[in-house]
Structures are given as structure tokens and as C-alpha cells.
């Protein structure tokens, strides 16, 4: 007799229904019971434990196979080539969840089509002072004040050296969060140094994300002035990158400011832009006031990022003479949320907060839901749905 995880995707409908039932039950258990328990503990401790648990599962062949059988189901209509890379599905793990590249074995089994590790910096960083994470349950959001707590690029490249990835893995690179970096020139030098190390390493990762939009670093250095951004991209691209470059964009800028940044992007060999990063504006109506007031520091993920992320995906998709692909990120909690971003113009999507609130099986649910939505709307492939919402 076959174990359920050995049932192939083209198996009869009864097998599909069984897998769907298991996924549904896992979702029910997470949302009803496990989340309530986890949310009783310190968010950063839960995050650290979840990463360790995920890493352990990833080391076990049986666990990988079992989990893949339920949540890692492939839907050929969701596959695409973006930035010259093949993606088996469009749902990625966004930067900020796996700073130490511990989940690269288990993430594809959960159904992720790709993962961004980091943000990683040239030098190791302790990050900001605690609290670095908080929960805003009614706002469906997380307070983030991590400040790039990461082991540094040398450590990650060393780890990547002898690794084979079964899906595309990218490295998010940002400025070292240190009091020693006080000027824009120092910040640029620091970022470019990390890119140069990554290029020299020949590690088998697939793409770069340049994070210019972290809102909680010391020193308040910013590359949002188009002149500085231009200079940074010139310097990064002068390293003759052998892998595609994506830019993680802010969402807390006006359409005009984003337009100026996109013009700079268009002048460089940038393959994709990601909209976008965290919500800085505590007055945003999607944030429940009593919840936000508990957090004097930090910025916000999840639902409060969704509206502006969607507006900027639309803006970028219609950017005159557009030369780049778009990756949608912010407030994805369901297949419908992901599909809206795709129909607004995103080729790929990324998320974090949705899995914290709805459980790791969410990725399988989103992939299954996306395949159903494509079928409902008469699209033979995901690529056909991109940018169809005016
Ligand atoms: C705990 C946490 C840490 C994050 N750290 C980073 C980071 O290091 N680099 C980055 O580019 N984005 C970071 N982000 C932002 C996410 O990548 C993403 O842009 C944002 O959370 C919106 O997506 P979501 O609503 O699906 O969480 C972080 C988000 C969270 C929740």
C-alpha cells in the first residue's frame, strides 16, 4: 500500500481530496489551537524555535517527503521564467524570516517556489535593542524592529559553499547596521563590499535583492535621493554581477518619489523590483490605534502594507518603457490576496506575516487556490493573468 505522501499529483481525484483534507485540517489546527498557544510566548523566542524546528525537519528525508506530499504539490500552470530563472510556483519566502539560511531545505517542501535569505550585511550585526518583534492581532500585523540581526555575508557564503538548493534561493543585501557607518559614502562602500564578496564566492544562489528600504537602521542613511540611488546602483553594477538584481522598494513614498526611483532602476541592469517593505506610517487606517500605541519603536508588516503595496505594483506595471519584472509583497494571507497582486502586475509574490497568522500550510493553500482561480478565469498559465486588472 502507498503512503499518502507517495501519491503523485496526477493521481485520481480521491487522492487529491485526501491531501486537501489533510491540508485543511492542518490549517484548522493551526488557526484554532496552535496559534493561540504560540501567541502566549515572546514572539522572538517563538521565531527562533520555529526556525530551529524547521531546520531539523529539513534535515530529515522522511519529514521532507511527508510534508512535500501534502503542501508541496506542483501545479504546472503556476510555473514561470522570471529574471532568467525557472520558478515552479510564484510564492516566495520574503527577506526577514530566515536570516541564517536554515530553512532552505524545508521551504520548498512547504510549497515555497523560492526563498530570499537575509537581509545579510557586509559585517555581522546584533540588530536593534529588544523588543525586536511584536504582534498586532487585530491589525493582522507584526511590529518589526530587527535592524538586520544577521551573521554577516562571510558566514552565509561559507554555508552556501557546499549546499545544493532544490529551488531558487536569493540573498538580500543591505547596509551594515552599525554606528561606524555614518555617511552615505561609507554605506555605499559597505553594500558594494558585500556584493563583491558574494560575486567572488561562486556560491550557488540564484539572485540578489538589494534592500534600500529598511526603515529601522541606525544613522538614518537613505538612498531615496535619486542621485544617491543612481550612484549606489552604478557601484553595485560595476561589480559585473553574474546573477539577476532585484530591488526591495519602500512603500511609504509618494507616487512621484517612487517614479523617480523607478527611472533610476530603468537606467541600470535591474531585473525586478519588489513592492515592498514595511509600513512606517503609524496613522495608517489599517492599524488599530490601541495596538500601535503599545510599540514606540518599529514598523509594521502584514495587512497594513497591502493597500500601498498593491497601488505601487499597479504604478510600476504601467511605468512607461518598463524594463523590469515586479514582485508583490505585503499583506498576503490567501490565494485571493496573491492573485490580486498578480493581476495588478506582479510575476511573483513574497510573504512572511501570513504564515505567522495562518500557519505554514498556507503556502500549499495559496498554490492550490491560485491554480483554481486561474481555471475559474480561463487562464492556461499564471503568466496570462499578470497585469490583467486595470
Ligand atoms: C520579522 C520580519 C523581519 C523582516 N526583515 C526584513 C529584512 O531583513 N529585509 C527586508 O527586505 N524585509 C524585511 N521584512 C519585510 C518583509 O520582507 C516584507 O516586505 C513585509 O513584511 C511585508 O510582507 P508580509 O506582509 O507578507 O509580511 C521583515 C518582515 C518581518 C515580518
UniProtKB/TrEMBL annotation:
For this protein, what is the EC number? 1.3.5.2
A GO CC term assigned to this protein in UniProt: cytoplasm
Q: Does the keyword Cell membrane apply?
A: no
Pathway membership, UniProt:
Pyrimidine metabolism; UMP biosynthesis via de novo pathway
Q: Which Pfam families match?
A: DHO_dh (PF01180)
Molecular function GO terms recorded? dihydroorotate dehydrogenase (quinone) activity
Q: What class of enzyme is it?
A: oxidoreductase
Determine if rRNA processing is one of this entry's keywords: no
Q: Which UniProt keywords apply?
A: Flavoprotein, FMN, Membrane, Oxidoreductase, Pyrimidine biosynthesis
Q: Which GO terms describe its biological process?
A: 'de novo' pyrimidine nucleobase biosynthetic process; pyrimidine ribonucleotide biosynthetic process
Tell me which cofactor or cofactors this protein depends on. Answer: FMN
User: Which residues belong to any copy of the Dihydroorotate dehydrogenase catalytic domain?
Assistant: 78-374
Name the NCBIfam families for this protein: pyrD_sub2
Under what name is this protein listed? Dihydroorotate dehydrogenase (quinone)
- Species assigned in the record: Candidatus Sungbacteria bacterium RIFCSPLOWO2_01_FULL_47_10
Amino acid at each position: 500500500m502507498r503512503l499518502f505522501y507517495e501519491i503523485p499529483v496526477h493521481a485520481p481525484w480521491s487522492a487529491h481530496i485526501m491531501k486537501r483534507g489533510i491540508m485543511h485540517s492542518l490549517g484548522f489546527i493551526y488557526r484554532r489551537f496552535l496559534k493561540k498557544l504560540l501567541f502566549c510566548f515572546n514572539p522572538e523566542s517563538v521565531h527562533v524555535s520555529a526556525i530551529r524546528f524547521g531546520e531539523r525537519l529539513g534535515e530529515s528525508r522522511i519529514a521532507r517527503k511527508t510534508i512535500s506530499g501534502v503542501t508541496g504539490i506542483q501545479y504546472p500552470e503556476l510555473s514561470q521564467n522570471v529574471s532568467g530563472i525557472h520558478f515552479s510556483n510564484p510564492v516566495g519566502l520574503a527577506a526577514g524570516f530566515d536570516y541564517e539560511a536554515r530553512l532552505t531545505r524545508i521551504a520548498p517542501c512547504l510549497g515555497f517556489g523560492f526563498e530570499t535569505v537575509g537581509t545579510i550585511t557586509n559585517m555581522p550585526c546584533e540588530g536593534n535593542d529588544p523588543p525586536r518583534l511584536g504582534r498586532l492581532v487585530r491589525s493582522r500585523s507584526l511590529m518589526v524592529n530587527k535592524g538586520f540581526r544577521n551573521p554577516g555575508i562571510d558566514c552565509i557564503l561559507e554555508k552556501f559553499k557546499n549546499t545544493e538548493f532544490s529551488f531558487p534561493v536569493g540573498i538580500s543585501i543591505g547596509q551594515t547596521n552599525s554606528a561606524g557607518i555614518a555617511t552615505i559614502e561609507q554605506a555605499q562602500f559597505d553594500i558594494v563590499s558585500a556584493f563583491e564578496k558574494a560575486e567572488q564566492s561562486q556560491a550557488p544562489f540564484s539572485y540578489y535583492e538589494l534592500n534600500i528600504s529598511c526603515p529601522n537602521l541606525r544613522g538614518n542613511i537613505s538612498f531615496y535621493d535619486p542621485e544617491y540611488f543612481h550612484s549606489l546602483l552604478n557601484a553595485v553594477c560595476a561589480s559585473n554581477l553574474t546573477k539577476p538584481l532585484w530591488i526591495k522598494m519602500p512603500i511609504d513614498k509618494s507616487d512621484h518619489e517612487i517614479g523617480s526611483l523607478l527611472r533610476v532602476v530603468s537606467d541600470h541592469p535591474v531585473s525586478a523590483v519588489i513592492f515592498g517593505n514595511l509600513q512606517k506610517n503609524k496613522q495608517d487606517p489599517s492599524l488599530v490605534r490601541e495596538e500601535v500605541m503599545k510599540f514606540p519603536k518599529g514598523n509594521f508588516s502584514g495587512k497594513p502594507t497591502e493597500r500601498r503595496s498593491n497601488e505601487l505594483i499597479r504604478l510600476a506595471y504601467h511605468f512607461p518603457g518598463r524594463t523590469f519584472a515586479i514582485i508583490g509583497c505585503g499583506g498576503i494571507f490567501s490565494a485571493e490576496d496573491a492573485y490580486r497582486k498578480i493581476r495588478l502586475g506582479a510575476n511573483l509574490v513574497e510573504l512572511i506575516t501570513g504564515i505567522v497568522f495562518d500557519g505554514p500550510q498556507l503556502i500549499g493553500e495559496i498554490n492550490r487556490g491560485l491554480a483554481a482561480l486561474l481555471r475559474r478565469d480561463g487562464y492556461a498559465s499564471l503568466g496570462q493573468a499578470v497585469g490583467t486588472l486595470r
